[in-house]
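Let's practice the habit of predicting before peeking. Look at the sequence and jot down your guess about where helices and strands might fall. Then scroll down.
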Amino acid sequence: LGLALCVMSSTAFVYHDYCIIGAGPSGLQAAYFLQQAGRDYTVFERSHAPGSFFALYPRHRKLISINKRYTGKSNSEFNLRHDWNSLLSHDRRLLFKHYSHDFFPDADTMVHYLEDFAALLKLQVQYNTAIIHVTLEKDEQAWNGHYFLLTDQDRQNYKCSSLLVATGTWVPNVVNFPGSEYVEGYETVSVNPEDFAGQTVLILGRGNSAFETAENILGVTNFIHMVSRSRVRLSWATHYVGDLRAINNGLLDTYQLKSLDGLLEGDLEDLAIVKDKKGKLHITLGFYLEDRNTSAGIDSITLPQDELDNFATRAPYDRVIRCLGWKFDFSIYNRSLKIMPGKGYKKKYPQINPNYESRSTQGLFVLGTASHSVDFRKSAGGFIHGFRYTTRAVHRLLENRHHGVPWPSTVYPITQLTNSIIKRVNEASGLYQMFSVLADIILLRENATAFEYLEEYPVGVLAELEMQTGRKAPSGLFVVIMEYGRNFSGDDKDVFYYNRAVGEAQHAWQSNFLHPVIYYYKRLPTEREMKLRPPDWPLPRPDAIHHIVEDFLTDWTAPNAHILPLRRFLENCLTTDLRNFFAESCFLFTFTHQKLPPFCRQGYARMQGLLGSEELRRHAVEAGLLEDYTPTDLLSDRRPDSHRESQDQLLRNHVITVRPLQHLVNAKDE
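Done guessing? Here is the structure:
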């Protein structure tokens, strides 16, 4: 290492503002956004092509990310809710549905797709470049007070102001115990079912790779046992796509339907494997071997069945396969970066903040699967259909921090508030996939006359919104987020019980399935409030909260069940009237109210909106939406018919009433 550092100090560096390590899906997604923004960047990829992980995994080549080509809708944003493989781009050719017709595509198709994504968009990827060492160089002139120094396998050196780590998790998890040398790894085990014909197999692990392996050999083995420290987690019960998917769960059938296969729970570190003279593998417990070793011979070793004759794994196995998933590669990072593994079940990921930046090194961001510690077992941030949005969020944070480009936003008049929320909850894919993690933020302008709409912001850094986005929140805000019911997801939950769904708006807060939730805050929450938020809440307790009742079709457009309760909630928070009115109503309000509703002030009073007709007015009267202000309501029956007709014409004639109306509004404002 000392020699390497000496060489680095005497060699010229190739500089880029942004360096991305890894040309997998998240690395290419980050490269796309940087290229669209015209930034100086490069991507380092150790292989000769992008997506090298998918060239090897999954071993049996079937992805578990769905490719739903038809939804019955033409809205491209909505369709991304059910396309779990496409990356975000402006090129409609780069939708995964054009590459595969399979609902669960082949992994080779993903490799082809990523190659096209990089080539068609002309992304700056440097292939056959393995970064083997990363360290820091202090410099007060640098963006973050330091530069990142990278060295590849050929001792070429690079310098970057910001480092984006998109290497994923690719180092196999290995458990060491006596006899673990007899275990085959998922990454090397044969995928030919005939190699397992007539054999008895033990699989270590309980995730999709373990069940994928079992599914492949289920029809040719004597029986398969599967052991892990935790019980099986079904994705339909936990609502976490990383748990066991139905496509791989054939072993559950054969276990529960008494066809020899079975599942066991136990700590793998307590196991030991002993090999007999015939090559059979016997499972025992580590404490039986405290004074012996596995090569001492099976006859001289006490086995559990010697004391408990119905010990579950007393039958010898022909093969033991390790399928324990992967972890992040920490080995290339110098201690100066202080990249540390997480704690507990997150130890396979590096520690990062909710904005995906390293906890100890400013300017180092972790993208893609390796960033899943932010929402592990909660949302989809470890998968393409989730991290394509979190990667975009990181890019927007960097644009504001380093280039003074505020988070994209749109300003609307307050009358469009209900419509804006309804549109987003019915279409937005980022909100839908990254539920409880990304949210739309609605910043209210002074006196609630207008609002500013920010899309898909990480709620974990809500307290830092003004600093992270360059936008101000002086007058309160709404947060629009998607959530499951609080007690609906879990390992042991029965998600198919009777009356599992709520249909009435008054019970919306009891909704179980994914549904929109709107939080209202009179001021931006503080960091302390974020830390003290209730367990399993994505946000602190708000000043007001509204659940839009779950919908079987995920179509939140019902006037009475969805839109009306939402509008009334917004009106209560803002103490204003958000209804839309006909021109006749706005005209009459000028004579009967001291203050016009926003729709009339911002629309009709400014000569905006659509002209009505007699047919439309009559329809509104019959529907109860407009009072029937006939001349008999306003004048005595003794008036002549001609005068009645002239008054009726006056109420309907916008040309006559518009100019005096503007003077009336101005006078009332004064």
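How did you do? Residues 14-171+327-398 form a domain with the FAD/NAD(P)-binding domain fold (CATH 3.50.50.60).
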